[in-house]
From TrEMBL:
Subunit structure: Interacts with UvrB in an incision complex.
Record's keyword annotation contains Hydrolase: no
Organism listed in the record: Streptomyces sannanensis
Main location: cytoplasm
Keywords of the record: Coiled coil, Cytoplasm, DNA damage, DNA excision, DNA repair, Excision nuclease, SOS response
Compartments (UniProt record): Cytoplasm
Function description: The UvrABC repair system catalyzes the recognition and processing of DNA lesions. UvrC both incises the 5' and 3' sides of the lesion. The N-terminal half is responsible for the 3' incision and the C-terminal half is responsible for the 5' incision.
Protein name (Swiss-Prot/TrEMBL): UvrABC system protein C
UniProt xrefs under HAMAP family: UvrC
Chain ranges of the UvrC family homology region profile domain: 259-511
Sequence ranges assigned to domain GIY-YIG in this UniProt record: 16-95
Pfam families, A to Z: GIY-YIG, HHH_5, UVR, UvrC_RNaseH, UvrC_RNaseH_dom
UniProt-listed PROSITE patterns: GIY_YIG (PS50164), UVR (PS50151), UVRC (PS50165)
């Protein structure tokens, strides 16, 4: 733990202006990002008596080894810069909301020549209009199925659309009236685009005018005794009303608003968002976060707004944003939201009426989400801390191993030998820092030698980075472009190997040979889940109910899974490889042309060079290379006379294809 006074800047050095600040640890990793109206006043709060600080803030400032700041001209710029740095550096002490799922959206690809209606998840794309998010994909499909009767917009994939255009026949939806079949020219691109625009208008809440128009058309058709048309319009109106009923009417004034509620305790917080468009709840989503920094409800709301609107398009920001508590600087946040939308956005706390009642509903959802999360996680923050403390005590470490790396060897009967390295920080997986290795120094199966090689390679890279400038005196020794870690730049406090005494001894020997003496090593044997230490004849036995043992098992199992996945992918590629794959410069197209021409590799192997040259795109030199490669791939096969292009028979041998 660092003494904050050792890196505290002098008060006169800190500007009294808006800005964003970063705390870094001893390895120059960014561990916290914050913003302030006055950098001088805010940073002074971190360097007071440690006893007066919140426990999480105290942990952060004692973990940090330096602080730096960037001055900006306005609070809005500070908000934007803070958000971009949190996204870039992923600081461990900042609040980070985690979606427990990827919420589905109803999407219309308005940027295409023939817009398509579909379900989309993940990052939003340009040229696509989104509605939602929805809790379930089936809810989107039910709504779309009802609306296609009135708005027969294309829903098929590009492949189906292209196929229908080629054969001149629409798909099933075209025959049953749920697609206008632009693929076969039943409507023009302009007419289909108008259908898509009407679909989007209806989904955006502009329903009343459209329904009144349909009702008038139905009455006109009935007066003109066009009863079939009137019946069809009646059914269309009923279908649209059923689609509207799936989104309950909650506000009578056609309000466009997002309502955000927060439920929290000392350790965690849950955020729920209801998206109201046209007075109806069009979507819902929720996040859960660890309160890794000292943050109140206002701070949680501000982080939620950053997460919600930081990457959204302008039209996704509504006219009103209703929150349970205003951020510390509501005017700056309001200006930022207005800039994102392109017009004024009202950020406020609902005080009375329907909006306050709906906010109470959102609040109940947040409380239920937090309770459900706690049930699933079983106070995971507490158990993680206890697990690290139990590991430190059992292995007699000086402090809890905040970074653990685990290594596993995987192979199949001595072939495709690979290794994995997984990383856990604060008891959580850091998948972005996982690494995988191919064993290079020898062939065959030897888990002990493999473990020695992998540990040597991993820590040799660490030493190379460390030795560039001594003891991390230069940022470039560990970072790329201001804070991004290089591979293998940071040492763990604990190395876990999958195995018993031999693997542990090999790992320790590798560290000793490199002169690394500040990293602890242990092994976890699968049979009895015993923990082995270097040089010890007896294992450390942790209780079966131990949280420390459970964490070591999770780390070991994750390393095993990662290694198995890599080994299987290598084996699959090897098994799929054919004799033509070794021919240099021979691409997939010419391979397919050869197989199509001869029918099989067996017939190709028996062909002369002149016959191979008959394949389009195959010259004589390539044909000679192919013949030679096929001959070497089957040693018992007949040899090829490259001078004459003839097959030379060997009476004393046999041919095995």
């Amino acid at each position: 733990m660092a003494d904050p006074s050792s890196y505290r800047p002098k008060p006169g050095q800190i500007p009294d202006s808006p800005g964003v600040y970063k705390f870094r640890d001893e390895h120059r990793r960014v561990i916290y990002v914050g913003k302030a109206k006055s950098l001088r006043q805010r940073l002074a709060n971190y360097f007071q008596d440690l006893a007066n600080l919140h426990p999480r803030t105290r942990t952060m400032v004692t973990t940090a080894a330096s602080v730096e700041w960037t001055v900006v001209s306005t609070e809005v710029e500070a908000l934007q810069l803070e958000y971009s740095w949190i996204k870039e550096f992923d600081p461990r002490f900042n609040v980070k909301y985690r979606d427990d799922k990827s919420y589905p959206y109803l999407a219309v690809t308005v940027g295409e020549e023939f817009p398509r209606v579909q379900v989309m998840r993940g990052a939003k794309k340009k040229g696509v209009r989104y509605f939602g998010p929805y809790a379930h994909a089936w809810a989107i499909r039910e709504t779309v199925d009802l609306m296609l009767r009135v708005f027969p917009v294309r829903t098929c994939s590009a492949g189906v659309f292209k196929r229908s255009a080629q054969i001149g026949r629409p798909c099933l939806l075209g025959y049953i009236g749920k697609c206008s079949a632009p693929c076969v020219g039943r409507v023009t691109a302009e007419e289909h685009r108008e259908l898509a625009a009407d679909f989007c208008d209806f989904m955006a809440g502009r329903t009343g005018t459209y329904l009144r128009r349909l009702e008038q058309q139905m009455r006109d058709a009935a007066e003109e005794m066009e009863y079939e048309r009137a019946a069809r319009l009646r059914d269309d109106i009923e279908a649209l009303r059923r689609a509207m009923e799936k989104n309950a009417v909650v506000l009578a004034d056609a309000t466009d608003a997002d309502l955000i509620a927060v439920a929290e305790d000392e350790l965690e917080a849950a955020v729920q968002i209801f998206h109201v468009r046209g007075g109806r709840v069009r979507g819902q989503r929720g996040w859960v976060t660890d309160k890794v920094e000292a943050v109140d409800t206002a701070g949680l709301v501000e982080h939620a707004l950053q997460q919600l609107y930081g990457e959204e398009s302008g039209d996704a920001v509504p006219k009103e944003v209703l929150v349970p508590a205003l951020p510390e600087d509501p005017e700056a946040v309001g200006q930022w939201l207005t800039g994102r939308r392109g017009s004024n956005v009202s950020l406020r706390i609902p005080q009375r009426g329907d909006k306050k009642d709906l906010m109470a509903t959102v609040q109940r959802n947040a409380q239920q989400a937090l309770a459900l999360h706690k049930t699933r996680r079983a106070s995971d923050l507490t158990t993680r801390s206890r697990a690290l403390e139990e590991i430190a005590e059992a292995l007699e470490l000086d402090s809890a191993p905040l970074r653990i790396e685990c290594f596993d060897i995987s192979h199949l009967q001595g072939e495709d030998v690979v290794a994995s390295m997984v990383v856990f920080e604060d008891g959580l997986a850091r998948k972005g820092e996982y690494r995988r290795f191919q064993i290079k120094s020898f062939e065959g199966q030897d888990d002990v030698r493999s473990m020695h090689e992998v540990i040597t390679r991993r820590f040799k890279r660490y030493l190379q980075e460390k030795q560039k400038t001594g003891e991390w005196s230069d940022d470039e020794a560990v970072t790329e472009e201001d804070g991004r870690p290089k591979r293998f730049a940071y040492p763990p406090q604990l190395v876990v190997v999958d195995g018993g005494q031999p693997q542990v001894a090999a790992a320790q020997r590798a560290l000793d040979e490199l002169g690394v003496d500040d990293v602890a090593v242990c092994g976890l044997a699968k049979r009895l889940e015993e923990v082995w230490l270097p040089g010890e004849d007896d294992p450390v036995v942790l209780p079966r109910s131990s949280e420390g043992l459970y964490l070591l098992q999770r780390v070991r199992d994750e390393a095993h899974r990662f290694a198995i996945t890599y080994q299987r992918s290598k084996r699959t590629k090897r098994l799929k490889a054919g004799p033509l794959d070794v021919v240099p410069g021979l691409g997939d197209s010419r391979k397919q042309a050869l197989i199509k021409h001869f029918g099989s590799v067996k017939k190709l192997r028996s062909a002369t060079i002149d016959q191979i040259c008959e394949v389009p795109g195959i010259g004589r030199r390539t044909a000679e290379t192919i013949a030679a490669a096929l001959a070497s791939a089957a040693p018992a096969a007949p040899a090829v006379n490259t001078a004459t292009g003839e097959i030379m028979e060997d009476d004393g041998g046999s041919t095995n294809d």
